[in-house]
């Protein structure tokens, strides 16, 4: 009999009266019955196995289960009965707990002067009233207070550094310095907020972090603070390689009794003048000549762009942090002390106040929201950020944004920034000049002198671009690492190409507009720069993009090259200085010593004087102080030379130039391209 026939017989046998059951439904029922029997067998087998476990072990398992449940209850109860304390302002605390619904507890807080803060979901109470409240609260409920970490309390009670092993100076025995020691003339040139920055540092024994936004004037404040401790010199300035010469110029400008002989701008380990008053060195070189710096034992140290010390595993940080800690005065400058996470701030804080920031672990547990990820502790998070800001603002850091001091600043601030140059190309400019003068003394036909002069200027202009190219790229890197959004103008295509290569190397968003950019691409690029936060660099040809566009998203303008007509550069500046600009515009003119810049610079200054007089009646301060070089380096001062009709202006006194030593921070790559104009 077939399976189907058997099923049919079974169906007929079990078929109840008036049943609607079909053979298919019966098959489904039989299948479910078999499944039920299997489950029953599994249950019986499981019961037998359970009975085989000794009763003592079953009791132990039950105890473990009860203990685990009890432990969870205890943790939950502790959480409910814990009051976490956080610094809210320098005079107030923020308290958070889930049991504040208690009527008696609320009464205790209010009678102690506390108020509920909806935004923070906690109670704010005066530090002076906190002890009183805590004593009341403990009588009302069984509360555990999670107090502030010891280092926070210590920093709050003492905004000035105390004697410690890492910084063994007895500051309490010395009299406090005042800004008046700078003299009336010096002080009168500082903006009010800059005076506040100097006073902030002096009140803390010359140990502070000036965290002002770029363009506000941190360098001047650093020089001023150091000048107040002139009796403790020499000073060591540690900075990015691209701004070493700028630091020298700022000291010369602000401290009148200094001369170029007082400086030791360290290019390598062989050119260190032990009797110099001001030592200036890059972060890289400082790490390479540790023994020499330790032997010198500097009392006053300035660390410019101190966020270069953010990585505590880096070689430079391992040497420089303890080195700076031991100095009597430690002045750190950075517009971006924290680039991405609080952990990056610890080394800078430890440089200044090792007495309250001795341990990264204590700092990280409080402010870095530690988590275990793949069996390792991760400190890339952030927690208690308001408290951290209050703590460091009270003890270490003063920070002002451009928007905070807008009323004190002019609309434009122009700055001459001297950058390193390639000596080889400067020598070629010098030789070309000598050749031109030699030919000028030889008999020639009418007009040949002018032709020779024009050829010299063209050649020297090209060589100037090559000489500055590497230094310009270093400066671009410096600005990018400082988290700046900026516009940079160049004239030669190769200069623009070099800048673009550097920006791409830094993996930073950018736009480029030069003579080859069509109108559609130009419009798209402007919109991108104005509206996309991650597009941080605009690379522009000074003639092709120097007018007709608005780039107010940036407040920093860099002139990588100078052109003969000052009007073009003023128009270029105004790409950022336009209607809609909410900040002061900083213009950085990159100056190459020993290049044609030394000829163009005073020529532009002279022409601007005429422009100011004609258009503004000598009342445009921003234009008046555009270029006023205070020291001549490289090929020396300009002298009048009437041999050439093309100039009728100062030319180079080449014999007065000082020879530069090799700079280990500044290597030149072989380059033989012919320069092309971008416009």
UniProtKB/TrEMBL annotation:
<dbReference type="InterPro" id="IPR049730">
    <property type="entry name" value="SNF2/RAD54-like_C"/>
</dbReference>
<dbReference type="Pfam" id="PF00176">
    <property type="entry name" value="SNF2-rel_dom"/>
</dbReference>
<dbReference type="GO" id="GO:0006281">
    <property type="term" value="P:DNA repair"/>
</dbReference>
<feature type="region of interest" description="Disordered">
    <location>
        <begin position="656"/>
        <end position="679"/>
    </location>
</feature>
<feature type="region of interest" description="Disordered">
    <location>
        <begin position="1"/>
        <end position="24"/>
    </location>
</feature>
<protein>
    <recommendedName>
        <fullName>SWI/SNF-related matrix-associated actin-dependent regulator of chromatin subfamily A-like protein 1</fullName>
    </recommendedName>
</protein>
<dbReference type="InterPro" id="IPR014001">
    <property type="entry name" value="Helicase_ATP-bd"/>
</dbReference>
<feature type="domain" description="Helicase C-terminal">
    <location>
        <begin position="471"/>
        <end position="627"/>
    </location>
</feature>
<keyword id="KW-0378">Hydrolase</keyword>
<dbReference type="GO" id="GO:0043596">
    <property type="term" value="C:nuclear replication fork"/>
</dbReference>
<dbReference type="GO" id="GO:0031297">
    <property type="term" value="P:replication fork processing"/>
</dbReference>
<feature type="coiled-coil region">
    <location>
        <begin position="26"/>
        <end position="80"/>
    </location>
</feature>
<dbReference type="GO" id="GO:0005524">
    <property type="term" value="F:ATP binding"/>
</dbReference>
<dbReference type="InterPro" id="IPR038718">
    <property type="entry name" value="SNF2-like_sf"/>
</dbReference>
<feature type="domain" description="Helicase ATP-binding">
    <location>
        <begin position="199"/>
        <end position="355"/>
    </location>
</feature>
<dbReference type="InterPro" id="IPR000330">
    <property type="entry name" value="SNF2_N"/>
</dbReference>
<dbReference type="InterPro" id="IPR001650">
    <property type="entry name" value="Helicase_C-like"/>
</dbReference>
<dbReference type="Pfam" id="PF00271">
    <property type="entry name" value="Helicase_C"/>
</dbReference>
<keyword id="KW-0175">Coiled coil</keyword>
<dbReference type="InterPro" id="IPR027417">
    <property type="entry name" value="P-loop_NTPase"/>
</dbReference>
<dbReference type="GO" id="GO:0016787">
    <property type="term" value="F:hydrolase activity"/>
</dbReference>
